Amino acid sequence: MKNKKLLSLGLAVSMVFTMTGCGSNGDGGDSGSSKNTEVPTIDKIKLGEDYKDLKADITILTDRTDIVDTTYKGYAEKFKETYPNINVTYEAITDYAESVTLRLTNGDWGDICFIPDSVEKSEFSNYFIPFGDHSVLNNTYNFVTEKTYDGKVYGIPNGGTAGGVAYNKKVWKEAGITELPKTPDEFIKDLQLINDKTDAIPLYTNFSAGWTMGAWNDYVGIASNGDPDYKNNKLLHQKDPFTKNEENSGPYAVFYTLYEAVKQKLVEEDPASSDWESSKKRINDGEIATMVLGSWCVNQFKDAGKHPEDIGYMPFPITIGDKQAAASGGQYAYAINNKASADNQIAAMVYVKWLLEESPIFDDEGSIPALKGKELPESLSEFDGVELLSDNAPAEGEESLFDDIRNTAEVLSGDYPVTEVLEAALYGKKSLDDLMKEWNQKWTSAQESYSVEITG
């Protein structure tokens, strides 16, 4: 079992600086220092014009240990051509979520980081400065609602991802599969064909990495029912949301897919010894047929070996009526340290804006661009006819309720308790129905603790 304390920081750390949105220096010219200058909101900065003489050394934390010294170093060097006095240093961190969660407690984490899922919305202002008002930034950037609290945007995602399944097209073809599955049972049937007709592991869980298992939680919303209002609103007020339904859709169907694949031995022989880094090359080489992860993984899998053309990405296999839907949401979101100096906060704001608007990062990573109106990446070419939707914002006054309920219930939070599903199927510990009954009880208890009205 994972350390539940990581699910919520729950720390009362005061903000050091009060940020007020304003122009860089009032007249559109350069500002060499932030002394006597308020830190601007990101929408007020004019790239290539403002702060070209600002001097600062900033550090940005990243989970991308594989490209920190190559691609990311190149971004810092390119940025320096326009801002010669701002030095950007990337620090790559293994076990990113856990390590950064701990480092946030003392403020010693540099100037920019990706917000770990352990930080609840109500805690954003304890650690980060706002980028600006949601009413303004939502017109420019995708997915900012996800890291908004009380009308302020505290994190802007590094592009977006769509929920689906990565697969090796060559392996699936060798198994005789000509149409992609649209239901959990069709998916399981296809995995069995792969098991019978190829040497590939049908579905690689990446259980040992932990965070990879948390990807399954992402499909309980739009992918499981096609409703953008479900995750942040209806689910919170629903009675027994993990109960099986006749359509084999909804949250139960998501975990049924995992449970059956493990139960029928269509996954790696020893999930506890799985390895994330080596799995990238193995799916590229055809040793692994399928992995359930967001579309952000596609370019990593393509770059991991000599067969990038074999990597494909399909919608998650649930159909509602005669339609499939997929959630599109933000990846890790950039945030700026509220304990950094004012100069460093301004430099960090400028660098994040440059990454989002002028760097090639979204092409390099095959992600949905942060800027609205840009084209979707080639990795989503197999989503033709699939509705790409984003979760609607929570109701006013319930901005943190999803975090509150899932963390109290210890359901849909991180990789635990998804791992319960795998372990129950792998060791025959309990049926999926019994496990989902337990989750319903936990969810109900959490709802009651927050006096939630049940409306559905």
Structural class: alpha+beta
The end-to-end span amounts to 32 Å
Total of helices: 16
CATH class of the largest domain reads: Alpha Beta
Which descriptor suits the 3D outline? globular
Largest sheet: 3 strands, antiparallel
SSE string, helix = H, strand = E? EHEHEHEHEEEEEHHHHHHEHEEEHHEHHH
User: How large, in whole angstroms, is the Cα Rg?
Assistant: 22 Å
Strand order of the largest sheet: 3-13-7
Write a concise keyword list for the protein shown above.
3-stranded antiparallel beta sheet; 456 residues; 2 domains; 16 helices; alpha+beta
Care to describe what's here?
This protein has 456 residues and is α+β, with helices and mostly antiparallel strands. It has two domains: 4-159 and 331-381, 3-Layer(aba) Sandwich (D-Maltodextrin-Binding Protein, domain 2), CATH 3.40.190.10; 161-330 and 385-456, Periplasmic binding protein-like II (D-Maltodextrin-Binding Protein, domain 2, 3-Layer(aba) Sandwich). The protein is 32% helix and 12% strand. The protein has 16 helices and 14 strands. The strands form five sheets. The chain has a three-stranded antiparallel sheet, covered by helices on one side. A three-stranded antiparallel sheet has the order 4-6-5. α1 (71-82) links the parallel β1 and β2 (86-92). The chain is globular.
Short characterization:
32% of the residues lie in helices and 12% in strands.
